[in-house]
Structures are given as structure tokens and as C-alpha cells.
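Re: weekly structure request thread

Next one in the queue (551 aa):
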Amino acid sequence: MPTTWPHGPVAVLGAGPVGQTTALLLARWGVPCVVLDQRPERDPIGSKAICQQRDVLDVWDAVGAGRQIADEGVTWTTSRTFHRARELFAIEFAEAGRSTFPPFVNISQTRTEQILDERMLAEPLIDVRWGHRVVHVAQDDERVVLQCDTGAGRVSLQAPYLVACGGSRSEELRTLLGVGFHGQSFDDRFLICDIRVDLPGWATERRFYFDPEWNPGRQVLIHPCPDSTFRIDWQVPADFDLEAEVASGALDARIRAIIGVRDYEIVWKSVYRFHSRVVDRMRCDRVLIAGDAAHLVSPFGARGLNSGVGDAENAAWKIAYVGHGWAPADLLESYHAERHAAAVENIAVTTATMDFLVPQDEQQARHRAEVLAAAATDPDARARVDSGRLAEPFWYVGSELTTPAEERPFAGRPPRGRVPPAGPGVLLPDAPVTTPGGGRGRARALARDGFLLLTTDGADLGAAHTAAAAMPGPVRVLPLAELDPEGTLTAALDACAREVWVVRPDAHVAAVLTDPTVDEIARALHRATARATAPHHNREENHDGALRAGR
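Done, posted below.
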């Protein structure tokens, strides 16, 4: 990986998991960064975002944290959905290839942050500064200038780029950047309790209950967590009063309706209202907005933090490529195009879930009642029960960076618990491979070291090497037969003879080319780094070079 960076440190606003991931991935590309957070120190309170999806663990593995997070978390592979006391269905999660990680791991956000902090402390390219509240942002064609309130006065910082991932309460920053944050807020609240209790048989399952007798007319979600802890979310009315419920003993009764007479301990409790919103721009010149600062979704489906990590990886490799001079600045515009599309997809999925969970009118309420009643005996009705489509990587099939292949068309959003077939825009399936040095590794780990050209039998290796040598930045050519003697990855790709698979540094497939020439491989690589396209971007003309506020 590169070690020489021709600019000053990149600024990362927010030391939550998205900011931590961004900083660690930038450092992996040899990019120094300074992480700013307005809090005086880390506040390890509550479980918060607990459900980490397999491909997010894979991203964290690239910075040395994925295996520890997976090992400390609770693994679950089954999602069960109930209507009242009857189980309607269970979903087992599929994978393409053979991943080193389970489909989902539950671990508190607090512990995830601690593990990522340990990795950051070991990284000399990362400088974390607590107690720095950003109060003003300005930029020109070469830099971003931040004014920070430290409590002891104001300091000014300059950075070539800013990744803004300060969380949902980023109203001031969004205003400074001039971006909208449109969407809706839901009236019903959710009560969260982290409860330490022994519940045999529940430790490897997510359970979702529609209209249980112990929360009539509303929903309950139960997730296992480490240390015999269970996260329970109850849907409650808009006027729910937690203090009154504790004082009256109603909270104890609510818990015992689920766990019975067992002893238990409340580790954390809170009430939250959720929102569905997305900014209208995720790139404002040299500022990229990520995570909850850019998009908020309802929690059913675990698409918040998982999607934020996708933002972080997309931002990090593109900043690295542009800053190192390996790609034009237009590559940064593709960050908005790809991750805004991912946010819109997440909002569409979670909004459909919320319309089913909390019907907005009589027609939706009638539809839900009919579907739930029929689902007890009708498999087709079960498919229409929406208790949350769980997080999955977004597919960049419509991206300007992706070269489409007529023989591998994208069939659209796959069924719940499934993954789309491998092809342009889709995340590369993972599998054990034989590395060029003869050791054992994983396909995605190789991909994340730069662009990767996988060649199948009969493909012109010379053409691939010639195209790779002409590209700035790291590009490797690896014959699939040597990489995958067991055939696991080959089968997951459904690879054919005379193909060249072009894989991006975030392990998404950029192109699948059949019997390509040097020029065809080069065009796909150029397109994947925005060299062949010039997407419209929002840079404002400023011929005198003066700083402009926000955008």
C-alpha cells in the first residue's frame, strides 16, 4: 500500500464508527487524517447499533478489526417472524462463495467503537482530537478550512478534503454546506432495554413479533447480544413516559411478559423516535457527507451503521485515488451518485417496512391485517409480511463507473436473505484463495489492495498486463485458475472462459469482459476511475481563488 501522500491530513468529522472506519481505511491507503469530535471524550453508553452484517465485518477486517468484532459478538443465522403466538416463517441467510464471516453478528456499538479505537491508537497516520466542535466550513479549489471551537478558544484547520460523519445531529454542518435533509419523522416511539438474562435457545436468533399479547396492536423485536444480554425493542405510543412506567412497575411487568420469572438485570434503557431522511447532496466539492449525517432510516433491517460503513469505504478509496493523482477529481462525484443511490434504496426498503409496521391509513391497516391472517397458512402471503429486510451491500449496477455486460444483466433486488448473481456492479463473492506468494488468503482481501484483473482460461494475459501497466495506481493481474484451484470462487462467479473480471478497490465488480482487447480492458479501468466519463458536479465558479463558505 502507498505511504507517500502529497497533501496535508484529510479531516474526518465525527469519531463514531463511520468516522473511525473512514480514518482507518484512509490510513491503509497511506493517507494521514485528523479526526475531530465535539465531545470531550468517548461516551460508552448503551448498545445503540448492534447488528453488523457480514460484508461490513469484511471491511473492518481490512483494517485489522473484523475478526475480533466477529469473535466477540453473538453470531446468528436465522430470523424468525411471529404473529401473536404463531411463528409465520424463518429466514436462513445465503451467501455466494464461502465467506469467513457469519451473516450477522450482534455486538454493542460501544464495544465496536472500543475495538476500532484500539486500531486507531496503533496507527501513526491518525490524529484524534476530542473537544473540537466545527462551527464554520469554507473551501476553495485546493483546500477546506475548518473553524473549531475547543472550549478554550477557536482554532483553524486546513485539509485537502473533509469527510463529515458527525451523526444525526449534524444540522449546523448541513446548513453550512447548504444541503437539504428531506424526509419524515414517525410519531410512534420505541422503548429499548438491554437486559441480562438467561434465555435458553434464543441466543442465535433474531425474533420479531407482530401484535403479541404482551404488546397488543404493536411490535416487539428481540436480538441476542454477548454476555447473556438481549436487546428488546417495544413499539410504544407517542406519549409513552418511561419514568412513569418504571415508577409504576409496568416496565418490570412488560419485561416479565417475555422472559417469565427469571432473574434479570437492566443494563441500559432508552426511548427513541426514528426518522427517514436523506441529504440532497452527499458531495459538496471537497466535502463528502457520510453515515447518519447524510441519511437516517428506521432501525428495522439494521441499515443505518451498516450503510454508513459502505459510505466510509467508498469515500476512502476515492479520496486516496484522487489525492495520489491516480484518478481525476470527477471520481469524487461518483461518491454522491453511488452512495446517494444506496441511501435512497435503504429509505425505500425501510419505508415499506414502516408502512407495514405502522400503517398510515385504513387501507394500509386492512392490508396488513389480511396479510398477517393469511400468512399462517399461505406461503405467498408470508412473502408479503414485512418485518424488515435486513442489511445488504448496495449494487452499483447503474453507476457511471460500471461497464454493463449484456450477458450478465442485473435482475433487480433479490429475494430476502439472498444475494444477486455476480456481475458488474455487484460485490465480489468471497472465498479462500491461494495468494501469489503461495499462501492462503481471501479474494476480497486481494481486491482491496487496488484494482484487480481476474482472468479466466483462454483470456489474453498479455492484454491484461499491458492495460494494467498503463494505469496509475496499483493494478494486479491474477489468473483465476491459479488463485482458485478448488474452484469455489470460480463457481460463485459463474465464470466462463476468456473473461477478464475488473474488480474495484472496494471489491465491487466494475466490469466482466469477454475475450477483451487491451483497449477494452483499458476503457473499463478508465471508466472505473472516472477517466472515461465526466459526471456533472456541483463546483461553483470562483476565478479569484477566494474561499467560499460551505459549498
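The radius of gyration is 24 Å. Confidence is low (pLDDT under 50) at residues 533-548.
Next request, please.
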